Amino acid sequence: MQNQKSTFRWLVLGLLFLNILLGIIGKDCIPPLFSEIEKQISLTKAQMRIFYEFMLKRRFGQLPKKGRKQQGNIIVNNGHITFTYAEAEKLGYPRSTFNRAIDKLIEVGLIDLTYQGQGGHVGKDGKITGERSLYAISERWMDYGTDRFNKRKRRKDTRKGRGWSVYHERNSKRKNKSK
């Protein structure tokens, strides 16, 4: 089921961009939000696709009626949207590309990090353990490039026992033992 969903997403996205590149349809067929973003912010194709994946993860609910009129829709999971590295890899994005895309999307105000998880590991049973990061679709991008823009960045991971610091520490211990 997941493979079919992923294939369908790529097919729709690919056909849209192919039609635009070939000039069969104009850029005006892109949803207004994406065309506005494209005018204001310079994003790579991978960054735009990852943002598109975030948009697909939204879930909508209806606002309560006011009299006889329906008020409209609201994103009910905004602030609770998850997108893990494992999901990104299944969609064909390398970890480094996904990491840079998340940083850029937060930097320009398209998404906000509402909770930074502790990362996870895929167990033998295929389940992800650990806490997932939570994201929200943001409207800060509308002020991007102006004085009103509220800059945000993702916190650097300072947990011990992770990353290059561990590698260098192990190498220095090996060198000291060999002397």
Average pLDDT, rounded to a whole number, is 75
Q: Based on Cα principal axes, name the global outline.
A: globular
- Rg over C-alpha atoms, rounded to the nearest angstrom: 20 Å
Summing up helix and strand content along with how strands pair, one would put the structural category as alpha+beta
> For the terminal residues, how far apart are their CA atoms?
56 Å
- Give the number of DSSP strands: 6
The major sheet is characterized as: 2 strands, antiparallel
Helix count from the secondary structure assignment = 6
Helix content: 40-55%
Any low-confidence stretches, pLDDT <50, length ≥5?
A: 24-30
Largest sheet: spatial strand order: 1-2
Query: How many discrete structural domains?
Result: 2
Strand content: 5-15%
Compressed to H and E, one letter per element, the order equals HHHEEHHEEEEH
Summarize the entry for a quick read.
By secondary structure, the protein is an alpha+beta fold.
Topology summary:
Blueprint: H1 2-22, H2 32-40, H3 45-56, E1 60-62, E2 73-75, H4 85-90, H5 95-107, E3 111-115, E4 119-122, E5 128-131, E6 134-137, H6 164-178
Antiparallel strand pairs: 1-2, 3-6, 4-5
Helix pairs in contact: 3-5
For this entry, give a set of tags.
single chain, 179 residues, alpha+beta, 2 domains, two-stranded antiparallel sheet, two-stranded antiparallel ribbon, 6 helices, 6 strands, 42% helix
